[in-house]
Amino acid sequence: MKILITGIAGFLGSNLAARLLDEGHKVLGNDNLMGGKLENVPKGATVLTSDCCDFEAMKALCKGVDVVIHCAATAHEGLSVFSPAFITKNNYQASVTTMTAAIAANVKRFVFCSSMARYGSNEAPFTEDMECKPQDPYAIAKVASEQTLKLLAETHGIEWNIAIPHNIVGPRQNYTDPFRNVMSIMLNRNLRGQPAYIYGDGSQVRCFSYVDDCVDGLVKLALDKNIKYETVNLGPDTGEVTIKELADLCANETGFNQPPEYLPPRPKEVHTAICSSNKAREILDYKETIDLKDMITKTADWIREAGPKEFDYDITLEINNDLTPKTWSEKLM
Questions:
Q1: Fewest CB within 10 A of the end CB: N or C in the chain?
Q2: Degrees (nearest 5) of the Cα angle 281, 11, 255?
Q3: Full strand arrangement of the beta sheet holding 109-113
Q4: Does residue 188 share a domain with residue 117?
């Protein structure tokens, strides 16, 4: 099959492209290189340096494509409270433009990568049948994109699936972004001889997903003819950890022996965010192949191999006031 992956030079997109190429599919994609790198793109994939908000470029790219997997996003949930215009454009507008281009080019199926942020203030573990209660502009953009996809698909007759990957870690993750990817931020700082930063008291609870496990499910959502019109959480509901515990595990992995530094809580951060994996296990045969400590080791090994680096503050803060985390406003990373 001919498969288009948006955000192909990014973390999830590049790992997904490698898997699909291994299975013998023709893979192409685009990336604006805002968070991705061309060296991430596996050999054999065709990549166009373009933005998902460019309708004509996306329509041309979708020509002759069987399935579009929309991985591209500026997945900066916390930042969206302070740069809402930027986040909205690069999530909602980019998603709707890509959907429209796919439909105009007669693509058969569209797979949208949403976010656990859609669940917001619901009580964990989150299940797919819960009402969405987004708590920030990023989550609102994801929910709006899901709703738009369903409306356009019903109107124009395109198949769809919605994946909800969450807290993905592993090789190729961007570890120099100061606004997201908490595990990679902690590991990069520790490997550079710096303590982790923790917002609030560190009691926030998360589960982390290894990228290969998420790729398995995405492939089925894209290619299995019997799985369509489904919304599925894609990640574990075991191995939960507090942010303070995560900081300790990262310090142990890197041999860093200083305590983390605590900062005021970030506005609108959900305290406990864990998704149920029951539906994924049932229809996607989802399995967790490694535990949290191994995820940390594999992610750390990736950073060690690529080399610990300074953080890139390349996104403009649209709202900079007393609520803005000092790690961002004062570039403390």
A1: N
A2: 95
A3: 46-49, 26-31, 2-6, 67-70, 109-113, 159-165, 230-234
A4: no
Q: Are residues 75 and 106 in the same domain?
A: yes
Identify whether residues 54 and 157 lie together within a single domain.
yes
pLDDT digits (tens, 9 = 90+) for 221-247: 999 999 999 999 999 999 999 999 999
Going by C-alpha positions, the residue among 329, 196, 181 that lies closest to residue 259 is: 196
Dist CA 166 CA 99 (whole Å): 22
Q: What is the pLDDT of residues 155-203, one digit of tens each?
A: 999 999 999 999 999 999 999 999 999 999 999 999 999 999 999 999 9
Region 262-274 average pLDDT: 95
What is this structure's pTM? Answer: 0.97
Containing structural domain, residue 182: 169-206+237-312
Q: 24 with 148, same domain?
A: yes
